[in-house]
Amino acid sequence: MRVPTRILAVLGACAALAGCSIAPATTESVTVMTFNAQNLFDNVDDPGKDDKAYLPLAAKQNDEHIAACNEIEVASWREECLSLDWSDAAVDHKLGVLATTIRQVDGGAGADIIVFQEIENAAILERLRKQHLQELNYLPAILVEGTDTRGIDVAILSRYPLTGDALLHPLLIPEFPERAGDTRGVLQATFALPGDSSLTAFAVHFPAPFHPTAMRIAAYEHLNSLLQSLPADQHAFAAGDFNTTSAEDAREGLLDAYARPNWQLAHDIGCEECKGSYFYGRDGTWSFLDMILLAPARGAKTTAAIRAESVAIANLNPAQVSDSGTPERYRSESGTGVSDHWPIVATFEFTQKQ
What we know:
Number of strands: 14
Low-confidence stretches: 1-23
Radius of gyration: 22 Å
Order of helices and strands: HEHHHEHEEEEHEHHEHEEEEEE
Number of helices: 9
Strand content: 15-25%
């Protein structure tokens, strides 16, 4: 094999110096998962949140509850509010299928950092961590309560310690005041990695597709402003449910305009055969609603990259897949499914600059 001239020059210089040695580059890898857990609620009424569907059936047998449910316009949601028995056993089963899905990553060890959407509170995520993932060494759940009317929040489980307090940056869109109750803020948390480096995470859950495109544009701009506020030597990633459908992206070019100029998209780099993380049955289309984005630091002592072969849809748990090969939403009454979203996984590599 021919040795490049540059390397020969370095070796020659080293030979002229007593004790000269070339240290190998050190690489740290971090695996990230984003997972929309589809309504992970406890079964305790939480004042100020619209969690009335997620109560034991015995707690629903009163006129006040029945009247409130009957105000719901969508028939399936109304029936769920009236008849879903969100018992202790149902909650435990839901936690169990989520845990099985998480364990499919890294031979049962799970991702190093998991970004969740649709989590009611830190207590229910702590139940998942302590009762179903106890040996995976995740640190206490990270969740800052937001103002979403349903009470669903973004949250993080990590094996890496925080370097400071996590922050929730509210998403404020004054142009749509009547829709403010269906927005979630960006959860920012910075983690200490081995070797005196750190990684900032932005956990997101953008406004749903039935809202105007302008709301998602505002969410992208909000996220990008948070990225730009970081120091130049700080690596960062964003993960979550971006709620950008393939149809909207084809029509509006949101990813080219608001994501790719600032971030590396994991599913651009790997996962070539992946269809998407969400399937719309009404028009038969797949979308990467769920995404992992990396922003390597501009002036760090390490380089950061997404390992292409690591990018994958995590759907090896048979309960996740319907008979037609699409995400199988969780159905408590039959004890089937996991979530209407498939998680995405990617590994970042951080290499010390020579």
